[in-house]
Structures are given as C-alpha cells and as structure tokens.
Design brief:
Layout (H helix, E strand, L loop, with lengths): L1 H4 L7 H31 L15 H15 L3 H11 L1 H17 L1 H24 L2 H12 L5 H9 L1 H17 L6 H21 L12 H12 L6 H4 L6 H5 L2 H30 L9 H27 L5 H23 L7 H15 L2 H6 L1 H5 L4 H12 L2 H12 L6 H25 L12 H52 L1
Helix pairs in contact: 2-3, 2-5, 2-7, 2-8, 2-9, 2-10, 3-6, 4-5, 4-7, 4-20, 5-6, 5-7, 5-10, 7-8, 7-20, 8-15, 9-15, 14-17, 14-20, 14-21, 14-22, 15-17, 16-17, 16-22
C-alpha cells in the first residue's frame, strides 16, 4: 500500500529524464546520419540547390566519408562507460553532444579547403564524441528507472534512434533544397545540438537525490525501488570498484553481448544492404525515393510504441514476468525478420510492393529488440550498466564495418539474386542463433556481482578460505609430527629388549 501512495506524480522527473535521453539520441542521430543526404547534395548540387559548391568525389571517397564515423565510434564506447562512472552522465553527455555539435558546424568551412579528407577527419572526431552517448544512456536509466518501469522508460528513451534517423532523412533533404542549401544541413544539426545542451544543463540530473525539481514522494519511490535490486546509494555509486573478473566470467553477460552482436549483424543487413539489393535486383532506387527510405524507420517507430504498450499491459497485470516478456518479444524481433529476410531473397523485380512491405516488416518487427534485449544491462547490473553497455556496444559496432566487407566478397554482381540470397541466409541464421543463446542463457535479474560490497565479500571469503586452508595445513603438520613422535618412541621401546638380550648373551 505504501509503494502505491509514494509513486509521486503520474508524469514526474523520471519521465522528463527519459524524454531528455530520447531527445539526446535524436539529436546525435541527426548529426550521425545527415551525411547520407549531405554527401549526395554536395556531389550533385543540381538536384538540390545549385548556388552552393559541388565536389567531384568518387564512390570510394563517399564510402570513406560515410564509414569514417564508426572509426572513432568504436574506440570510445568503453571510455564512455568509465567517464560516466567517474564524472556522471550529466557532464559526460553534455561534453559528448557539445563536441559533436561544434564539429558538425565546421564541416562547410573545412571541406572548402580540406576536401573529403577533412570531412572524414571531422566525422571520425564526431564518432569519438558520440561513443560516450549510449553507455551514459544506460547508466542514467539505471539511476532513474524504478524496477517496474524499466521497460517503459528505457523504450521511450531508445525511440530516439528511429526518430533521429527519420527526421534526419526528411529534414536534410528539405534543407538541402532550400535557400540555405547543403551547408544548412550542418548548421541546423549543430543548432539543435546546442539547444539540447542548454536543456540538459538545466534540467538533467545524475540521480533523483541531486535533482532540485523532484518531489520527495517520487524521489523516495525511485530510490526504494532501485535499492531493492542491489543499486547502491548515490554517494557510493561512483566509488564502487568494477568486478572485472566476475563480469567477464558471467554467462548472462556473455549471452547479452552475443545477442547484441547478432542483432547488430541482422540490423546492419536490413539498414545498409537491403536498399542495395532492392536497387540491384528489384530495380528500385531506394536512395532517391524518400518515401521508400523513410517508411521502414517510421514502421520501426510505430512498432516500438506497440511493443511498449503490450509489454506494459503484460507486466502491470501480472500476466507475464519480466523474463518472459523480454525473451518472448526478443524472439519475435529476431525470428520474424530472419524469415522475412529469406523471403525477400526470392522476390522478382515485378514484386516491388511486396518487397517494400517485407522491408518495413523486417525493420518494424525488429524494433522489439530494444525491450527484448538492448536494455538488459539494467536488469543484470544497475550499478555497472554503463560499463556493460560500453563493452557490448564496442563489440556490436565492429559488425557494421565487417558486414559490408563480407557482402563485397560474396556479391560480385549486384544484379545476381542467388548471391544476395546467401547474404540473407547468413544474416537469418545469425538472428536465430543469437536468440537461441539469449533464450538459453539470458537472465533478467540483478547479478551477485552487482552488489556494492561484492568484492569486499569475495575478499573476505578468500581470506577466510585462506585462513581455513592454513589451519588445515597446521593440523595436518601437527598430526604428522605426532605420528613421527609415536613412531620414534615405538622404535626406542623395541630397541630396549634387544639390548637386554644382547647383555645376557655376553
């Protein structure tokens, strides 16, 4: 009864923090994905606004620009988790977004004298800054999400992925064709980033205890709910040592990381290779048709809301446990796209409508992976969620670099459907294997090594075990000495009769 009374307002500071995280992802994804439209506008000004410079970049140079972001992005995931623990999510995310906003506004000026190489350098630096974002997102959610609202708030925050991608596609095209031309893409992205930094600086707070706007009822509700699952007090959270050995030997964590890598493989195929297949085999120009490009992400956004509503109903009404919800939704999010990927590989060029439907289905259904497995870090370890996300995100973001290389090896003819079928079958198998591992070994409960005093208890147990071992050794040595003493006494006693007999004989 007390827990029901002390929940605070229906819409409170925890919801504001989730919205700020949502907008942070949206802003950073706008900066991340605006290059796709910007590069086209910069190399083909006649189709946008011819009043601005046009650059003669070949396909390979364009590919370097688009991929250079990930060169920096994979390097700072782990560092982001450490910085978040050291300085808090508020400062780390502020620096991350501010740095990205400053760099993106420099693109028009730097490209004018440095060409595509300068653009690559700026994109790589942006990736370095944005590598901090998702470890901070998970750490911040762990500090603010009551246990029974993790699905809701975590899914709301991660909807920024689809929103940012969708807004970037539409807004960048409109801006490039407007009076401010393609440089406006970078100016607007930067301006939105600066605006978010201002909001975050005044409204963001690392923990409920540090928030000046939160009510006492909501603060107590959040803290009591989190403390029941091993989450440390705010004053201690930054000082908790990381149980590295326990993390790296944790089967549920490995299950989570493998599942996330499999999700990254499948989604990168959907996101980057499916348009190339539909262009080469089905003769559809996905890049020039804004509707085709944006529909899958709109479907993903809608389905994220559907998954959220369903998960909330199942959890609040006690129909399914959090373990059942996560594993069921993740299975749907993996198995359905796996089947649809194989199906797409058998379509002909006269089945374009069905191809678009399947692509939207793939991306939309896969949106369930957010609730299914992405936010599992908070279940496993609220205290170390940022570290876990940093490790797993580093591994999973290597995948988008590998998959295009594999496709380049397997697909020699972009119009050969059989070569593409092998690409889709491999991705489908990886989807299925990832979910099977998650079903078998994934856990949705706080792990023993999440406890703030885990290492102290382990150290005490080791000392006690060492003491017991030494005591046992001492007892064994005493026993051996006693046996030797008895043997020596027995030997002396046996010698005395022999000496007496010898005397008698003499």
């Amino acid at each position: 009864m007390t827990a029901e009374i002390n929940k605070g307002p229906v819409l409170g500071q925890r919801h504001l923090q989730a919205f700020l995280l949502f907008s942070a992802i949206t802003v950073n994804f706008m900066t991340k994905f605006n290059a796709g439209v910007a590069v086209v506008a910069m190399t083909d000004a006649e189709n946008t606004n011819p009043d601005f410079p046009e650059y003669d970049w070949n396909e390979m140079e364009r590919s370097y620009i688009l991929s250079s972001f990930f060169w920096g992005y994979i390097l700072t995931q782990f560092l982001g988790g450490w910085l978040c623990r050291r300085y808090g999510a508020r400062i780390t995310m502020f620096a991350s977004t501010l740095g990205s906003a400053v760099l993106v506004v420099l693109v028009p000026w730097c490209v004018s004298w440095g060409g595509w190489q300068a653009y690559c350098g700026l994109r790589m630096a942006m990736g370095l800054f944005q590598g901090f974002v998702f470890p901070c997102i998970h750490a911040h959610l762990a500090n603010w999400c009551p246990v029974n609202e993790r699905n809701r708030l975590g899914a709301l925050a991660n909807m920024g992925i689809d929103c940012g991608t969708l807004v970037s596609m539409f807004a960048s095209g409109l801006i490039a064709a407007s009076s401010i031309g393609w440089p406006g893409i970078f100016y607007v992205s930067s301006g939105v980033g600066f605006f978010w930094c201002i909001m975050w600086w005044f409204l963001g707070a690392d923990t409920p205890g540090e928030c000046k706007l939160i009510s006492d009822a909501e603060r107590i509700y959040i803290e009591d709910s989190i403390s029941s699952s091993h989450k440390a007090k705010e004053s201690q959270a930054g000082a908790i040592p990381v149980p590295w050995k326990a993390i790296w030997t944790s089967v549920p964590f490995w299950a989570y990381m493998i599942t996330k890598c499999c999700q990254s493989w499948g989604f990168s195929t959907l996101q980057t290779e499916m348009p190339a297949y539909m262009n080469g085999v089905l003769l559809m120009d996905m890049k020039k048709n804004a509707l085709y490009s944006a529909l899958p992400y709109f479907a993903s956004w809608v389905m994220a809301v559907v998954y959220l509503v369903i998960a909330d109903i199942l959890l609040t009404r006690g129909i399914m446990s959090i373990t059942g919800i996560r594993k069921t939704i993740n299975s749907i999010a993996f198995f359905v796209p796996a089947a649809a990927l194989i199906g797409v590989g058998f379509l002909d060029s006269d089945q374009k409508t069905l191809a678009v439907v399947l692509m939207c289905t793939n991306v939309g259904i896969n949106a369930g992976s957010t609730i299914g497995s992405t936010i599992n870090t908070i279940d496993l370890s609220p205290n170390h969620a940022g570290i876990l996300m940093g490790i797993a995100n580093t591994a999973s973001n290597v995948i988008p670099i590998i998959t295009p290389l594999l496709v380049g090896i397997m697909v020699k003819d972009n119009h050969d459907r059989e070569q593409w079928q092998m690409v889709f079958i491999i991705s489908a198998v990886i989807f299925v294997v990832g979910d099977i591992i998650y079903l078998a070994f994934g856990q949705m409960v706080s792990q023993p090594w999440d406890a703030p005093d885990f290492l102290d208890k382990q150290r005490s147990a080791n000392l006690q075990e060492e003491g017991n071992s030494k005591a046992l050794e001492a007892k064994q040595s005493e026993k051996l000495e006693e046996e030797k003493r008895k043997e020596s006494e027995a030997g002396l006693e046996s010698k005395e009769p022999k000496n007496n007999d010898l005397k008698d004989e003499l």
